[in-house]
Structures
1.
Amino acid sequence: MLRTHTCGELRIQHVGQKVTLSGWVRAIRDKGHLLWIDLRDRYGITQLLIEEGKAPEALLKVARTLGREFVVQASGTVIERASKNDKIPTGDIEVAVDSLKVLNASDVPPFLIEDETDGGEDLRMKYRYLDLRRDIMRRRLELRHRAARATREYLDARQFIEVETPVLIKSTPEGARDFVVPSRLHPGQFYALPQSPQTFKQILMVAGFDRYYQIVKCFRDEDLRADRQPEFTQIDCEMSFVEQEDILQMFEGLVKHIFKSVKGIELDDFPRMSYDEAMRLYGSDKPDIRFGMTFVELNHLAKGKGFQVFDNSELVVGICAPGCANYTRKQLDELTDFVRRPQIGAKGLVYVKYQEDGSFKSSVDKFFSQDDLKQWAEAMGAQAGDLLLILAGEADKTRKQLCELRLEMGNRLGLRPENVYRPLWVIDFPLLEWDEETQRYYAMHHPFTSPKPEDIPLLDSEPGKVRANAYDMVINGVEVGGGSIRIHDQALQKKMFQILGFSEEEAEAQFGFLMNAFRYGAPPHGGIAFGFDRLCALMGGSESIRDFIAFPKNTSGRDVMIESPSPIAPEQLEELGLCLKNPR
Ligand code: ASP
């Protein structure tokens, strides 16, 4: 081995030992007769000392040729430091070097390899190997590793088996666009990369595997956002002979175990909230319940008083921001601008200040008496000193807008602390979602999700009212996982395809294999999948899942290190039976 110890290992009790370390030069401090080198590897940093007169002359010469990120091997004796550094675990000692070898030189790195780097995202992505050399990035990938290990530990102890499913498959209709791969052997035909192993895991249940999981890459050709990547990783799970309750228990346990192992945090039992309640109180199916400020509907108090905006609205709804009655004109304008941004799209914002003296001051004083406003304040549980923020308009849209405003207020008031985790289950999702544009129903989760048995009679009469045995796990406003009890009955599955507008032939062509499988003894089954990258980012306190993926794509879907996607040679195109009519 090229070392006896790592750069994170030596302590005061090693003083006097002869050691050899190998690593990267993080920094050099040359004081003339004394020269220090910070040597870094994955495990830490150790200070090397070269002292004029004590170390051989040639050694000092070699040391003076070193640059940042050179790879060196140094041997010497561990000594106690004169001035200790209590910021690093090896800070009590240094190594008095008596031999030094350059294992490899390095160009000057294009950015600082420190937690606080001067490298922008693009540069860091292009030189990802240097970025990953930074402590902070290494710690993130270590967190990811520990989360994966904890997952396997938990599931393995409960008889789950990890089965790999294929990457070259055909489309699974889960809402997003597929990435496709042309087949050379079958010109004009394509594989698709899986958006999830959904149908395969169900087929594994038919095959009798009973408990399956896989930490698996999935691919979706969607527009990118900070928390999306074209390829991402799921913890994908499926179980047989279970009901919704069994799944909720099992996977609440998994996430508790992961948090305990990775963060040392014991999560409380997860509360459950129906989809309807989540929408009504938070305007979102992924509510951040770290703080309250829940919605209060004011239709009965606010309509019919001559204020047209409210009178013409389907919904008048507000939140009470505690202690914000002293907001200035400027702050209120900021909030109004916030809700008016095109991404949010509210027309305006009504405020009511519940002043310390018990009186009210509002942006709608012309239309509402002090008494009216008092009633609103009471309905909203407001105290003197609070600020009521109210939006009105079409119900669904207004709820979404108020959801954004609530989160903004949560941020402003510091009610969304990073290290507090408040998970919950959102349950009882609608089975179907009506799409105005295409005038048809879409599966809210996916077409294999089972309706609640008691709602099956509504399938023909009022499909929009049918609830599904589907559930999402939400933590701090982030959907970390979702799944459902599946349809395992061939006839019901057929009916579902019919409701979703598939002709019998289309259903057969796309899902014949699954319906066939259902003819041979499909057990009742259900499952869930977690967004692994997101879960890691959440535990690591980062907004961006890119920070937790070793080699992510950038915001426009490119890998700038390997320069992909990239054109391919005309011969390759031809071989694949692909001729670009209008090559760009
Ligand atoms: N396949 C689903 C998804 O990727 C999860 C599941 O239903 O298990 O969202």
Note: The mean pLDDT is 95.
2.
Amino acid sequence: MKSLSNQTSSIAASMTVAIDTLAKKLKAAGQDIISLGAGEPDFQTPTEIRKAAIDAIELGKTKYVAPIGLEEVRKAVTYKLKKDNQLSYEPNQIILTSGAKQAVFNSLAAIVNPGDEIIIPAPYWVTYPELVKWFNGVPVFIETSPETAFKITPEQLQAAITSKTKAIILNNPCNPSGAVYSKEELQPLTEIIVANDLYCISDEIYEHFCYEKEFVSLASFPQMYERTILINGFSKSHCMTGWRIGYNALPESMAPLISKIQSQAIHHPSTPAQYGALAAIQSGNDFVYKMRDTFKQRRCLLQQKISESLGNEIPLPEGAFYLFVPVNSLYGKKTPDGKIISDSVTLCSYLLESVGLAIVPGAAFGMDSCVRFSYAAAEETLLEAAKRFNLGIQTLR
Ligand code: PMP
Ligand code: GLU
């Protein structure tokens, strides 16, 4: 047989997706698994959204539409961006996508030429570097740490820029660290982005999950609108993970390029899912604010329990719904059957095998010293997860 694509073979599969798939498979096979692996809210999609999609199907609104999506849904997205983010877009600047993940794909497809450097603060969401590599770009990481609240500084950004730098991907609030940049922290970063004529891919999918600070969109800063490719979606805000619906909001000049990509790659996201997204916007933000308040309490609960287990206080993440926990003090210890916990992957495998707890190794996010817990889960699940984590790590010698 002839060889498969070298380019595609060279990228890694998504570890978050792999862990979620494995945990769901083990559970379906009857194993006692607690999964805080995937970033998936545990609530059901709100009734009015489900009903809107069912109505669309029953009314036969199930045909092909334009590659960038239904006009009325894109109009609704512009309304949302105005209301929540004080941003003015026309419907032709909105591209509906099959989840925010595809919006990331589109953004990179639109700007990356071979050899272009794309700056990515670490820890990062698993998908960014792999897609950059897939488009023959070069991911350039800026390291952060728990001591700097997992945020990059203007000095770090300036130092990472070369003549080959094309763009930066900023995910605010951040998956996995939960870091939230304030307006004052973003301002000097945007000045550097503008001064160096970079594009900015701004992944704002966790915008509503800010527990202390106000969320500010990067596109709202001076001279950023024309260089920002905004990414957002409904998976997290309206518990629509399986619907696969998100969007890009773009400078006008870029929309035709992405429309072309969509027309060849997917045509458009599922038509009933687009009607679901319309209902999500029409239903307002009460649902997501209520969920945010619930997550805020869960965040404290999990942080307290995991801090107790490790014997040191983990800082509270300011946003998203993940607790990103330094666990390198456990590295070098032995499991009861003599295996050495050498890194985040061996620790997570050990926890899954020994106590049935699925969490994600920090290595997947470019920070091997940590592991990621999602707290988008019921309180009893979080308590049971914390109990299992404690049991697992207390057994290490
Ligand atoms: N961006 C980030 C930072 C994410 O964590 C995720 C995970 N779902 C996505 C984008 C993609 O979301 P979607 O389900 O809409 O594809
Ligand atoms: N974004 C979620 C996560 O980080 C879902 C899985 C994925 O798409 O990566 O867990």
Note: Residues 14, 16-17, 38-39, 101, 125-126, 175 surround glutamic acid (ligand 2) (CB under 6 Å).
